[in-house]
Fold these 2 entries.
Entry 1:
Amino acid sequence: MYSIKAVAQATGLTVETLRAWERRYGIVAPNRDASGRRVYRPEDVLRLRRLREATERGHSIGRLAGLSDDGLAALLNESTDRRTRATTNAFVERILESAQRFRSAECEQSLTLAIAMLPPPQLVSDVLQPLLREVGERWHRGEFAISQERLVSTIVRRHVGLMLDTYDRNARRAPIVFATLPGERHELGLLASAMMCASRGFKTHYLGPDLPPAEIARFAREVNAAAVALSVVLQDRAADAPAQLGELVSHLPAETAVWLGGSAARDLPREQLPARCVVLADGAELEQRLEMLPA
Ligand code: B12
């Protein structure tokens, strides 16, 4: 449960706007605590954040107020699609073209422009993910050399890392530790997720790939982490994951959550995972979990 001040901080709306929207449009219905102050649920925070985003895109709050949570999410997706698909595709194309010609400075220029123009979630889902996937496909088809794949991965890693550092300077919310388990060297998705958490004000501790579970747990204890976020990309690592996660949780305080993301996380044998390990299917689920962390 969150106070109106915490909600204002988490959504970027002012306390006055929150009160006015509630009074005029009944957009959320917070409960009251013993002394009559408003208390909000994590779902309210997510709804309010979406409402802010939609109003910033020119939709009237009067019309938005009548939409369900799903309707609101669909509206945001739809308008994002129409407005920016052409722009994000152009960024991906330009970076690929520069990599094709081994022009790292041009790659970097296009990426920094994309970073300046797009909000972090969109940068990740509409530019970085399709870009890296296509680089992988071209490498598979023999159209890209290993050095071209490295050129793009290295630039992405450096810039997403810089964004993470910048957001992290002002991070005041609960600490989260990011890592991958032994043998998993894919880290760009994890780094992008850490950057998104930092952009929401969470203190991120990015340990990077390929760490023994006991080491991750030790670090998490030291920094009092509210959650440990892990990425699982390689399918053949999935078989070892239950035992590794068992070891990790055995060294963690009971209240520390364990989140699993990445393209192979959904294939993990869930019945074999320790109870507190949750697989996060997408960015929306990550956002929901973030809002449920202790303030
Ligand atoms: C770049 C890359 C590499 C780089 C990694 C560089 C780095 N520092 O990360 C290098 C060269 C090291 C590499 C090596 C290998 N790779 Co590789 N690689 C890729 C590639 C091209 C892109 C991956 C990527 O960064 N995607 C971009 C990110 C942003 O997307 P993402 O990982 O999906 O993450 C998103 C979500 O999943 C989510 N997410 C991810 N993690 C987390 C964590 C949390 C907590 C949350 C909430 C969300 C979340 O957020 C992200 C944004 O939405 C893919 C191709 C592809 N189709 O994906 C292959 C791919 C992943 N690689 C593959 C393979 C097989 C390998 C190698 C075995 C190749 C080899 N023969 O050596 C090695 C294994 C190395 C190892 N031991 O881990 C296969 C995996 C197949 C499978 N499913 O098992 C793929 C799919 C290529 C293919 N089509 O075969 N690879």
Entry 2:
Amino acid sequence: MNLKSLILHRTSKDQIRKGITVLAKGEGIHVTDQEGKRYLDLVSGVTRPVHVGYGRKEIAQAVYDQICQMSYFTPMQFTNLPAIQLAEVLKEIAPEKIGCFTFVCDGSEAVETAIKLARHYHAFKGEPKRYKVISRRGAYHGVTGLALRVLGTVMPMRQIMEPLAPGTIFVESPYCYRCPLHLTYPACGIACARDVERIIEFEDPTQISAFIGEPIQQGFGAYAPPPEYWKIIREVCTKHGILLIIDEVICGFGRTGEWFGVQHFGIQPDIMTMAKGITSGYVPLGGVGCTEEVVKPIDVFQHLHTYGNHPVSCAAALKNIEIMKKENLIQNAKAMGKYFLDGLKTLASHPTVGEVRGTGLWTAIDFTVDKKTRAPFSLDRLTSLVNRAKEKGLIIKLMGPALEFAPSLIIRKEEIDWAIKILDQVITEEEKAMGL
Ligand SMILES: Cc1ncc(COP(=O)(O)O)c(C=O)c1O
């Protein structure tokens, strides 16, 4: 296969020389490459959108029907039935006051849209000076302009585009396993959250528009904050008139065993972003939800994507959500997530397994070369683990210092058992190679 005409995303020339896997088929939680090798996909397409699994003919049919019925029309001053219906369906499953929605093409665009919506809210309320956004070191919110501005990790992605527009304030993340403040939970008093108010005061609260954060964070590998964390952030945002944007691009649509990740923490976001699991990756779609309070002052949202509120993508999302409800996939994510985590915990006696963690079907193993100092694994070691697993027919991914797992929400016990067995083998092989 000649790959000269196709530019791959985040793939080095060296990786291309070594050989790129071309996938030809997907079915359930398995994919098959063009040579006929079958893999169990433990990361739902690696970027983790495929919540309902591969090969769902019902979604294909819904997309086909919508294309035949009404394929496209502008989202400006016109709308369409699937978009209206999707907004209504989301209102039923979203956190209580999130009742207004708009749709774009992916997660980065959802983040752009959310940040712009927050700015509109303040501008229409007579506070146009509020332009700064608080984000967290280790955050991931996408690759486009405003989303890149709040990207707190993956430095090459950020650095190559610098200088970025000013206006982002970075605060520390609640990553207790390797606390950036060198403190220990709970004696720390959640210093990473309490510190935010001091930073807000320094930056001038009247210039701050929003705080953005993933309810459970990707950057260190599926890291859930302490239970008090989001309540403290919510309180400080409310006190200073700052909107709280919860980025549900990964957590949304059952990944963590609730419809949305924020529902684990009992707080009310002002704005919410979503993508990935909204269509299970069958067609591109991102979305933003917000409270009525956010839209109330805004006369016109000065935002327009040609493919905004796209009827075909919205039809796919409606069918995808219908499948999740019909097959109780949120409950399955909770039950199988617990089973998976228990299985991963059996690997904790490996000398390199630092921390095993997870919420629902989003789990991770944080590796270390020294359980006392918690010094992280090198990128090479993690890459080696991923490659060893792939050779054995298991697709996993590395994330920061960890291996991350996010299978489709249809996964069953037998598939989890097999995956744990393979993980045990590859960790043992790697440790042997390290002389352990
Ligand atoms: C939390 C979060 N926000 C935003 C994005 C960007 O989404 P997309 O890749 O669809 O642009 C991602 C992607 O992984 C994400 O994890």
